[in-house]
Amino acid sequence: MNTTFTIPHVTSNVIAMFCAAILLIGCDAILPSAPNDADVLDGPVDALSSAQHAQFLRGDVAFNDDVFTAATGLGPIFVATSCGSCHAGDGKGHPFTTLTRFGQGDENGNAYLDRGGPQLQNRALPGYTPEQIPGGAPFTKLTPPANTGLGFMELVSDADIIAMSDENDADGDGVSGVPNWRPLVSYLSAHQNSIPTNEQYIHRFGKKAAAYNLLHQTVNAYNQDIGITSIFEPKDVYSGVNIEPEVSASVIHDVVFYLQTLKVPVERNPNDEAVKNGKRLFIQIGCDNCHKQTLKTAYSPVAALRNKEFHPYTDLLLHDMGKGLDDGYTEGSAKTYEWRTPALWGLGLSQNSQGGEYFLLHDGRAKSITSAIVMHGGEAAMSTQKFQALTEAEKRDILKFLEQL
């Protein structure tokens, strides 16, 4: 017996709605959930105005999405094609993005500015030859740092930085941090909290604190990393002559604002008992002599940054890190063995931008937090010895504390 089934008429709208529902269910099952805000480094500070948020987004696009080509001014010799390529997710760089600086082995200035210094452009457009380090030139390898919270560190007053310095170790703790004093480049204006000495100003950004502020850092990065000129730095890195700006001043200012208003990393598990013990031990063995937990910002026209207490674990000062970390290269008044204390916040998220591994210290040589600690010498030697004398359980607690920063 044949049975005939009658299929009721279904409108195209019903079919479309049914398919859409299936797709939504499927997407929810397949796509990962959004990460917790504390587990990512990018994103703006809270309480920006609508106009400020719009500028942040413009800077975000310029930093992370704009990729330069020969048609838009790239090179012709360069290191990277975009800002974000060295700072994935606003995190630390990878050995593949490590920069090479050369030409200055003492405080007398860079002797190789007419031979490609201070930065090696190791890539080139077709028809051009990448740079090579001149024979005999001192050089160093520098892994790009994370970007978050920089706007807060920019606003620490000179008075507070000087108060943390102790050039002659007057308190006898073995730590004698000093600022990096340098003259201002022509396009910079001193901030209102500056305290110059003999026309030298405290610089605070970079591995040896060679950059004065985020405008200085950004202009240098466009010019030295990507080969892009601006009204601030019109010299072409290849020809050495001034050319028309290849990026507008407004884009530069948007990127600076983006960097200034990136959120600060937050501790992700501060109430864990092992983390609490790790923090206590971190202080007990003297790590906080350089890695100061709490700083504060001074005045800023951006209310979200103004007069804020924050916790970066740095003093923004140069410290003698011993023979093992002496790279034979320097900038400004820094010695070859001196390094600016890196901020530790966001340390545990470093692997997210470094391919799932740690590449720590100035050149990425340390493949773990423990390795980075034990390579500390000079002013940090006593703390290193105290760390090595801890029990394995105590060391694990310190690492747990640092990994959740």
Which terms summarize this structure?
mainly alpha; 7% strand; 11 helices; single chain; two-stranded antiparallel ribbon; 10 strands; 405 residues
Instruction: Indicate the structural class.
Output: mainly alpha
Mean pLDDT: 92
Order of helices and strands: HHEEEEHHEEHHHEEEEHHHH
- What's the end-to-end separation, in Å? 75 Å
Low-confidence residue ranges: 1-12, 14-25
Count the DSSP helices: 11
> If strands are numbered along the chain, what order do they take across the biggest sheet?
1-3
Number of strands: 10
Shape: globular
Give the domain tally.
Answer: 1
Strand proportion: 5-15%
- Alpha-carbon Rg, integer: 25 Å
Helix content, binned percent: 25-40%
Specify the biggest β-sheet. 2 strands, antiparallel
Written description of the protein model:
The chain is mainly α and 405 residues long. The chain has one domain. Helices cover 28% and strands 7% of the residues. A two-stranded antiparallel sheet has the order 1-3. Strands 2-4 form a two-stranded antiparallel ribbon. Strands 5-6 form a two-stranded antiparallel ribbon. The model is unreliable at 1-12 and 14-25 (pLDDT under 50).
